[in-house]
Design brief:
Blueprint (H helix, E strand, L loop, with lengths): L10 H18 L7 H14 L6 H22 L3 H30 L52 E5 L2 E5 L6 H49 L24 H55 L1
Antiparallel strand pairs: 1-2
Length: 309
C-alpha cells in the first residue's frame, strides 16, 4: 500500500526549506534598509508558521514566494534602487498589517463577553450537594421511630406510604424524593464500615491465620528437634474448648484467631441490629398502609355524603 508523504518528515523537503531559510537570513544581513531587523523577524515568523504545512499548493506558493524574496534581496545587495524601494515597501506594508492585526486582537481581549445562556448553570441541574437544605435534617422533622404521625402534623395534609429500601443490608424508609443528604451520608458511613470489617475478616482468615499455622508448624518442628537433642524448654498450653484457640501466648496463630473472632462478632452484631431495625421499620410501613387506606375510605365516604346532601 502506498504510504502518504508527510512533507515535514521528508528529508528532501526539509533540506530545501532549510537551505532557503538560511539563504534568506544570510542575505538579509547584507541589505541596509531602515527595517532590516524587522525583515529577519518576519522571515523567522513565516517559516515557523508554515513549518507543518501539508497542502502541496500552499507549500509550492510558499517556496515560490521565498525564492522571489531571495532574488529581491540579492538584487538589493547589488545596489539596485528599484529592488531596494520594492523591498522597503514590502517590509513596511507587512509590518503595518501585523500591527493592525495585533491591535485588533488586543481590542478583542478587552471585550468582556457575557456568559452564554447555554453554559450558565440552571437551578434544576445543580447537584444535590449544592442544596444546603438537604445536608441536615429539618428542625421540624420527627425521628423515624415516632411515626406514623397524626394527619395534622403531616405537611400538605396528605399521607403517603413510604418505600422500604435496603442498601446492602442497611434498611431505611424513603418518604419522598430527593433523598436527604443526611440520610445518604449515614448510609455511606454504615456501608463503608461494613465493607471495612469484611475486608479485615477476609484478610485474617485467608492470609494471616494460614501464615500463623505455617509458623506454628515450623516452631513445632524445631521444638521436636530440640527434644530429640535434649535442649527443649517449651511447655504446651491446652486450647480453649469454647473458641478452639490455642492459649499459648507464643503461638503465631492465637492473636489472628482472636482478632477474627472479634471482627466476626462485630459483623454479626451489626447484622442483628439491621435486622431488628428492619422489623421495626416494616411495622411502621404496615401502620402507614392501614392509615392511608382508612383515610382514603373516610374521604370517599365524606364525598358521598356531600353529594347526597
Amino acid at each position: 500500500m502506498h504510504q502518504p508523504l508527510v512533507p515535514h518528515q521528508s528529508s528532501t523537503h526539509r533540506l530545501a526549506c532549510l537551505s532557503l531559510y538560511k539563504a534568506l537570513l544570510k542575505h538579509s544581513l547584507t541589505v541596509s534598509t531602515t527595517h532590516s531587523g524587522g525583515l529577519r523577524s518576519l522571515i523567522r515568523c513565516r517559516f515557523k508558521t508554515d513549518r507543518l504545512l501539508q497542502s502541496p499548493s500552499q507549500i509550492a506558493n510558499g517556496l515560490n514566494a521565498g525564492n522571489e524574496v531571495l532574488k529581491l534581496l540579492c538584487a538589493s545587495a547589488r545596489g539596485e534602487s528599484s529592488s531596494i524601494a520594492r523591498l522597503s515597501e514590502l517590509i513596511e506594508s507587512t509590518l503595518e498589517l501585523s500591527g493592525i492585526t495585533e491591535a485588533y486582537r488586543n481590542s478583542l481581549r478587552l471585550i468582556k463577553k457575557p456568559p452564554s445562556s447555554r453554559r450558565a448553570p440552571k437551578a434544576n441541574n445543580l447537584p444535590l450537594s449544592a442544596n444546603k437544605t438537604l445536608q441536615s435534617r429539618r428542625p421540624d422533622s420527627s425521628p423515624i421511630f415516632e411515626r406514623p404521625l397524626p394527619l395534622s402534623q403531616i405537611r400538605g395534609g396528605k399521607r403517603r406510604v413510604p418505600k422500604f429500601v435496603a442498601a446492602q443490608g442497611v434498611p431505611f424508609l424513603l418518604y419522598s424524593k430527593p433523598q436527604p443528604q443526611s440520610l445518604g451520608r449515614l448510609l455511606r458511613q454504615k456501608i463503608a464500615w461494613q465493607h471495612k470489617k469484611w475486608d479485615q475478616r477476609t484478610k485474617l482468615t485467608e492470609e494471616t491465620i494460614p501464615l500463623g499455622v505455617c509458623e506454628d508448624a515450623w516452631d513445632a518442628l524445631v521444638a521436636s528437634q530440640e527434644e530429640v537433642e535434649g535442649h527443649s524448654n517449651r511447655t504446651s498450653v491446652p486450647e480453649d474448648r469454647e473458641t478452639g484457640i490455642s492459649g499459648d501466648s507464643t503461638s503465631w496463630n492465637s492473636a489472628p484467631q482472636f482478632a477474627a473472632v472479634s471482627v466476626g462478632d462485630k459483623i454479626r452484631s451489626f447484622e442483628r441490629r439491621n435486622l431488628e431495625t428492619g422489623r421495626r421499620l416494616f411495622e411502621i410501613l404496615k401502620q402507614e398502609r392501614v392509615l392511608v387506606a382508612n383515610e382514603k375510605e373516610k374521604k370517599s365516604s365524606h364525598q358521598v355524603q356531600n353529594t347526597v346532601i
